[in-house]
Design a protein that fits this description.
single chain; 143 residues; alpha/beta; Ribosomal Protein L13p, Chain: A
Length: 143
């Protein structure tokens, strides 16, 4: 017996559209991350990127539960003294809701080169329009 590993040409990638309207942020991010990693695919291999492409629409309508909108804050450091910048989730959702979903998903992916390839297959849009109609994406209902 030998273990089967899919070759690069054998991996067929599908495109899925996920509607974020009314979905809790963390649950949406974890389900999208599973699709990007390829765990929904029967040919899943941990060290090969077998995941599919995901288009997330209606990012501005994602559901934030509890007190997270007022209490959760995002930080980044500019590299200069006194350069720690912070932003509350509520303000970031009004300014750039795509970034909130992208960061939630990226932090659930592996922290290596493979994770960067997986993250490159994620597309997030504020409204319900997206420019990927040519790829004929399937609507994925997350239960």
């Amino acid at each position: 017996m030998s273990t089967y590993f899919p070759k690069e040409g054998e991996i067929v990638r599908k495109w899925f559209v996920v509607d974020a309207a009314g979905q809790p942020l963390g649950r949406l991010a974890s389900k999208v991350a599973r699709i990007l990693i390829g765990k929904e695919n029967p040919r899943y291999t941990p060290f090969i990127d077998t995941g599919d492409h995901v288009i997330v629409i209606n990012a501005d309508q994602v559901k934030i539960t509890g007190m997270k909108a007022d209490q959760k804050s995002y930080h980044h450091y500019t590299g200069y003294p006194g350069g720690l910048r912070s932003e509350v989730l509520k303000k970031r959702m009004t300014r750039k809701p795509e970034l909130v979903i992208e960061q939630a998903v990226s932090r659930m992916l592996p922290k290596n080169k493979l994770g960067k390839h997986m993250f490159a297959k994620l597309n997030v849009y504020r409204g319900d329009k997206h420019p990927h109609q040519a790829q004929k994406p399937e609507v994925k209902v997350l239960a």
